[in-house]
Amino acid sequence: MDSRRWLYLGSATTFAILQLFLVVVLSQETQKYNFGPFNDSMINRELYVIPMAWLNFGALQLSPDSVVDGTLRNKSGRVFINKPFKLWDDTRIASFNTSFLMNIYPVVNNTPGEGIAFIIGPSLSIPPLSYGQYLGLTNQLTDGNSSNQIVAVEFDTVKQDFDPDDNHVGLDINGVVSKVTVPLSKFGFKLAASNPRFYMVWVEYDGVKKEMEVYMAESQYHYHGPIVAEKPSKAVLSSHLDLKGLVNDMSYFGFSASTGNYFELNAIVRWNLSVEVLPNNNMSSARNDNYWWKTGVGVVVGAPLLALLITGVMPFLRRKIRESGSDPKLLSTLRRLPGTPSEFRFRELKIATNNFHDSNKLGQGGFGIVYRGTLPKEKLQMAVKKFSRDSIKGISDFLAELTIINRLRHKNLVRLLGWCHNKGTLLLVYEYMPNGSLDNHIFFEKGTTKTPLSWSLRYKILLDVAFALNYLHNEYDQKVVHRDLKASNIMLDSDFNARLGDFGLARTLDNEKTSYAEGVPAGTRGYIAPECLYTGKATCESDVYGFGAVLLEVVCGQRPWAKIGGHHFLVGWVWQLHGEGKILEAVDLRLGNDFVAEEAERILTLGLACSHPMAPVRPKMQTIIQIISGSVPVPQVPPFKPPFVWPAVDQGPTAATLECSPINTTFFAR
Ligand SMILES: *[C@@H]1O[C@H](CO)[C@@H](O)[C@H](O)[C@H]1NC(C)=O
Ligand SMILES: *[C@@H]1O[C@H](CO)[C@@H](O)[C@H](O)[C@H]1NC(C)=O
Ligand SMILES: *[C@@H]1O[C@H](CO)[C@@H](O)[C@H](O)[C@H]1NC(C)=O
Ligand SMILES: *[C@@H]1O[C@H](CO)[C@@H](O)[C@H](O)[C@H]1NC(C)=O
Ligand SMILES: *[C@@H]1O[C@H](CO)[C@@H](O)[C@H](O)[C@H]1NC(C)=O
Ligand SMILES: *[C@@H]1O[C@H](CO)[C@@H](O)[C@H](O)[C@H]1NC(C)=O
Question: What is each CA distance from 383 to 285, 329, 354, 356, in whole angstroms?
Fold first, then answer.
């Protein structure tokens, strides 16, 4: 072995030791969830909803908010996060914080009942559901039994014999007879006030000190959302609490509530949870008494070695690690991602995709192959994107895609369900789109029996895509450019709703890396705006150009790079027909007369406006939506395709007339 090899081995060993040290001693990673507003699409994904709880009006309605079986009395329900958390092991107890906005409403001017509990429970189906007086925690047979393994913080609005009053907070262990109770009136809080009040609650558990603290503050709720109060400095309830042994080491977080002879609405409007991540379960179970000793030795031996190597070898080492794709930073970034996507196990995905079998291949993108998969247990279909291993840029692309997609929420975007990282292989798991991509419904080999999409579907799909792009450009808190808009990236769900997918190239605009310097991706000829080849940068305007190409191909049934009528690109041909006053001749012949001429003319003309060689002249997404839906006329398009000039010159009044106007917000109302 040459010295370089030794150096590498040595440093790798040291690094492994350091890693272990970091994981064991310094691990401060948390898993974070931010929920709310709540909606049905979370059911059986992020949330496990146990009737009579349900999701309505953007909130968890833990007990029914409308009459069920003739009454609101004697009902209970629970909602859990659909996955367990590791709460303790041999050596430590996880800390966690949660905060939620709660609203209790006594329906008529009635006696309220019964309350809400924040609950830590051992499984999704424990114990049989209650009615009346047990807050959805237990029932008359199970209440108080230590095999329940339940810890809860109750907000109780009914006075039982064992309660101080009908307006208190309590710490419940395995039953509704609280270990500690604190009346809330002395703080000026009224849980079930006849004019409903919103309360923010913070529950903080310190696994080292074994202390639980509950804070409360009244909050305001306006039609546009809650105004969350500051956490007060003084807790309303604090108690020593040793979760180890009390709750299951793998436990679920959630809420429960009940009504009884009296009733009220029990709603959770917003919910945040952050849980300290304990080292991997399997690793910890392999630990023994020597563990700390070994770690100690590792550190003592490793640290000086590390100090020695760190200066000279670190850069080399870091590169090595990045190249091998097992950057520990990556994993921790992934695990710290806010929001909902969950980590899948590689084995799970391997089974789901039949070992990434060719017959499960859905498609191939710039960065990897997409497979169809089915989780056997849940029968959940999904699309698994496996990033190609040899792409060194893979990790940053992967992270870019993940961090952006993870935070995007729109009904016309393909949803991310989770991710997986295994020995340098990166995978993303998406919702499965049964109808595949748009291009498969417009272009197909001659001789197939497939019928091309109807006009009304094409029209609706284009509007859907416009909504998605407008969201990316204007409605999300950062401007996001998609960069890779084309028919093969537009997915269709079971109802033929269009969903924009493949954010492999998506980048937020405040990130400098919107560059085409790495080259124009294959299969995108005709979708890329001319200025991009000069600036190397994707912009909202270049997305609009791509959208224009999609408009034309969907109406014409021709690829953007189709050589037609003596033109090199579809857009040249359509522009010529437009100049000759016969633009409707461009409409897909396969549609025959089954299209709406006025709509087709509007979309083709809009397609040309979007394809304007000068970026500033192209309409903005907000305007485009209004144009497609017919509430704003199509801008004037010159009879001849204008030349592209670089650098872009001020287009004067033409540009001004195309400035986007404020959009009518009611347009988005459902
Ligand atoms: C909980 O919040 C406290 C501050 O109130 C913070 O110090 C602690 O790190 C948080 N713990 C977790 C697990 O988020
Ligand atoms: C949840 O966290 C977000 C981001 O930190 C914050 O804006 C929001 O107010 C929190 N909501 C609750 C209910 O704590
Ligand atoms: C507690 O629950 C367990 C399991 O359901 C049961 O076997 C046991 O008899 C219960 N104990 C009491 C005191 O009810
Ligand atoms: C609720 O259930 C309890 C226990 O079975 C019963 O005693 C009570 O009458 C019920 N109340 C109503 C209003 O149905
Ligand atoms: C440890 O890993 C095995 C195999 O991957 C798995 O079946 C088991 O559930 C894991 N243990 C825990 C405590 O999660
Ligand atoms: C429900 O919420 C999710 C996550 O916030 C969001 O992506 C989705 O669009 C929402 N669905 C509806 C129908 O509002």
Answer: 33, 26, 13, 11
Q: pLDDT tens digit string along 559-593?
A: 998 889 888 889 999 999 999 999 999 999 999 99
Q: Which residues in the chain land under pLDDT 70?
A: 1-28, 66-70, 107-109, 126-132, 222-225, 279-341, 365-367, 389-402, 404-405, 502-524, 533-536, 645-670
Q: What is the pLDDT of residue 440?
A: 87
CA distance 549 to 526: 7
Q: CA 183, CA 171: separation in Å to the nearest integer? A: 12
Q: Which two tokens stand for residue 364?
A: 């191939």
- Count how many Cα atoms sit within 13 Å of the Cα of residue 28 in the half-sphere of its side chain: 1
Pocket of ligand 5 (CB under 6 A): 281-282
Ligand 1 in reach of 95 Cβ (< 6 A): yes
Q: C-alpha distances in angstroms, 430 versus 164, 357, 425?
A: 50, 18, 17
Q: Which ligand is nearest to the CA of 70?
A: 4
CA of 384 to the centre of ligand 3 (A): 44
H or E element at residue 556: helix 540-556
Cβ–ligand 1 distance for 31 under 6 Å, the answer no
Q: Mind listing the pLDDT tens digit for each residue in 344-358?
A: 888 889 999 999 998
**Choosing from 484, 502, 543, 588, which is the catalytic residue?**
484
Q: Beta-carbon neighbour count of residue 94 at 10 Å?
A: 21
Which of 129, 149, 146 has the alpha carbon at shortest distance from 138? Answer: 129
Mutate to test the pocket of ligand 4, among 131, 134, 158, 264 (most ligand atoms within 8 A of CB): 131
Task: Specify the pLDDT at position 315.
Answer: 47
- Residue 498 Cα to ligand 1 midpoint, Å, equals 41
Tokens of 402: 């993940």
Strand partners, 515: 537
97 CB less than 6 Å from ligand 2?
A: no
Amino acid making up residue 224: H
Binding residues for ATP, by number, are 386
Q: Which residues are paired to 372 by β-bridges?
A: 383
pLDDT score at 389? 62
Residues in the chain: 670
Residue 321: per-residue pLDDT: 41
Rounded CA separation 143/151 (Å):
12
Please give the number of the atom of ligand 6 that sits closest to the Cα of 39. Answer: 1
Identify the residue whose C-alpha is closest to ligand 2 atom 13. Answer: 100
Tens-digit pLDDT profile for residues 191-225 = 998 777 889 999 999 999 999 999 999 987 765 66
Checking DSSP bridges between strand 54-56 and strand 115-121, what pairing results, if any? unpaired
For the question of residue 163 being annotated catalytic, the response is no
The confidence score (pLDDT) of residue 280 equals: 52
202 CB near ligand 1 (under 6 Å): no
Domains, the chain, ranges and CATH? 1-29+283-324 (no CATH), 34-276 (2.60.120.200), 344-431 (3.30.200.20), 444-668 (1.10.510.10)
Q: Which of 272, 273, 336, 337 to mutate to test the pocket of ligand 2 (most atoms within 8 A of CB)?
A: 272
